[in-house]
From TrEMBL:
InterPro entries: GH15-like, KPBA/B_C, PHK_A/B_su. The keyword Lipoprotein applies. Belongs to the phosphorylase b kinase regulatory chain family. PANTHER family: PHOSPHORYLASE B KINASE REGULATORY SUBUNIT, PHOSPHORYLASE B KINASE REGULATORY SUBUNIT BETA. Signal peptide: none annotated. This is Phosphorylase b kinase regulatory subunit. One of its GO terms (cellular component) is phosphorylase kinase complex. Keywords: Calmodulin-binding, Carbohydrate metabolism, Cell membrane, Glycogen metabolism, Lipoprotein, Membrane, Prenylation. GO terms for biological process: glycogen metabolic process. It is found in: Cell membrane.
Length: 467
């Protein structure tokens, strides 16, 4: 079939009738429509003409040096642009003329982007080089990289030009309306919480003051993740089940880990197309649906779930129940969730309490360790639920319990002087649950960590009842 926009030359030869019609560079419809209308309107006299000695030539496309692509299959696939990796660390302390020489001699787009970034930082956007300002050079590189679909250079230039997604504000609001919070920021640096609707100007200020100084490309990538989360949560809220606070920097970390787990030869996440980034985000959020099929190890699952900050159903209620029976509070990674004034100023199902628990857990920088702590809290809750007469007398130190569980694990597996806990974290949940539960019981028996609610009654026989 010919498309309505196709341009062609058609020559019609009807033997000695010399019926020749030349249509040069005209828009035509479908070929069958042309034949149908011709037979009815122009060739209906042919039944009165003796055609026995006539020769009819078949319709054919006239050949030209170039008349454009005739179909989508004729369009050659765009070549994938690649270049060697380059680090600007060596140029940080070099004089300006060395940077200019490097720009003149460089051929890679990403390399030029980084060098112009240094120039921008030192001399400003209006510095003139080769008849153009630094800002104009960056815009040209941005468009060139876009035409080549070289996404890492596109994002780098976009960040240096302080681009912001104009439609990002409504998507942040969508996330908030669904009962979630957003944080942006580079891992290991201060995070900014989005707990109320913000204007594009406010978002831009946060992005380029708290993210770009530490990671240029993430200043753009994190905007993309916020945008995609806002779209996805509106159509598929179950994908965010168990996630109270969407920490965008850690979501990106989960996506990086996912690439490493699934693909042997993977490219940096910053060099993936926007579509690929969106698909990867959904894949990470739905890890429970495909983890078994793609044979993820328990360690890998804990890493992904820990990065997503996902917790089981009723988890925050379980922590509340533990806290009601722990007068000295719960401690992890040097931070304490206090018994008071928490219980007197908050309620069990209050969002404020859940966010307080998240703030304590967010001090854990190792995602798999965070998940182990979540598992441990669920185990402690189960023990207390089955033994309602028990109460923790001393502070509940979760790090000590994990350490004790790991020691028992090493002893049972004849592992001496082993400090790498990854072997323990890589164990299946039934194994880690067993050792964590034993650690809790051992603390009860050895240190008197548990006491009955009526501890002053000396006639109480069942001092510790663990089932």
């Amino acid at each position: 079939f010919f498309s309505m926009a196709m341009r062609s030359n058609i020559s019609l030869n009807c033997g000695s009738l010399m019926c020749s019609s030349l249509i040069n560079k005209q828009t035509v419809g479908r070929l069958q429509n042309l034949i149908s209308s011709s037979c009815i309107e122009h060739l209906d006299f042919m039944n009165t003409v003796d055609t026995s000695e006539m020769t009819f030539n078949q319709f054919k496309q006239m050949e030209h040096d170039y008349i454009g692509y005739q179909s989508l299959t004729d369009v050659p696939k765009a070549q994938m642009y690649t270049e060697e990796s380059f680090s600007i660390a060596n140029f940080e302390s070099k004089p300006i003329y060395d940077i200019l020489d490097a720009i003149r001699n460089s051929t890679g787009l990403h390399m030029k982007c980084q060098l112009y970034g240094l120039l921008l930082k030192r001399e400003g956007p209006n510095y003139v080089f080769n008849d153009f300002t630094v800002e104009e050079h960056l815009k040209n590189l941005y468009h060139t990289a876009g035409c080549l679909h070289y996404w890492i250079a596109v994002r780098y230039c976009s960040s240096l030009l302080n681009h912001t997604v104009d439609s990002i504000s409504p998507f942040i609001t969508t996330v908030l309306v669904n009962g979630k919070e957003l944080t942006v920021g580079v891992i290991g640096r201060e995070e900014t919480v989005f707990d109320k609707p913000l204007t594009p100007a406010e978002i831009r200020s946060v992005i380029y003051s708290t993210i770009q100084p530490y990671d240029v490309i993430q200043a753009v990538l994190q905007q993309e993740i916020v945008l995609y989360c806002g779209r996805l949560i509106g159509t598929n809220p179950d994908a965010f089940k168990g996630i109270l606070k969407i920490r965008v920097g850690w979501v990106l970390e989960a996506m990086k880990l996912c690439l490493q787990m699934i693909y042997s030869n993977y490219k940096p996440i910053g060099n993936h197309s926007p579509y690929e980034v969106r698909q990867l985000l959904y894949k990470v959020l739905s890890v429970r649906d495909w983890a078994v099929k793609e044979k993820l190890t328990p360690l890998q699952r804990r890493q992904l779930e820990g990065c997503l900050c996902r917790v089981p159903t009723q988890f925050y209620n379980q922590v509340w129940d533990i806290l009601t029976r722990t007068p000295q509070g719960i401690r992890v990674q040097g931070h304490t969730l206090p018994h008071q004034p928490t219980l007197s100023s908050m309620s069990r199902s209050e969002l404020k309490f859940a966010l307080l628990v998240e703030d304590i857990l967010n001090h854990i920088q190792q995602p798999e360790y965070r998940q182990i702590i979540v598992e441990l809290l669920c185990i402690v809750s189960t023990i207390l639920q089955r033994n309602p007469e028990l109460t923790f007398r001393n502070q509940l130190d979760l790090d000590e319990l994990v350490s004790e569980a790991f020691k028992m694990f090493c002893k049972d597996h004849d592992l001496e002087e082993v400090r790498d806990v990854s072997m323990f974290f890589a164990s299946i949940p039934s194994v880690t649950t067993g050792y964590l539960a034993r650690a809790v019981v051992n603390n009860v028996l050895k240190g008197g960590q548990l006491a009955t609610a009526n501890i002053g009654n000396q006639e109480e026989e069942d001092f510790c009842k663990i089932s």
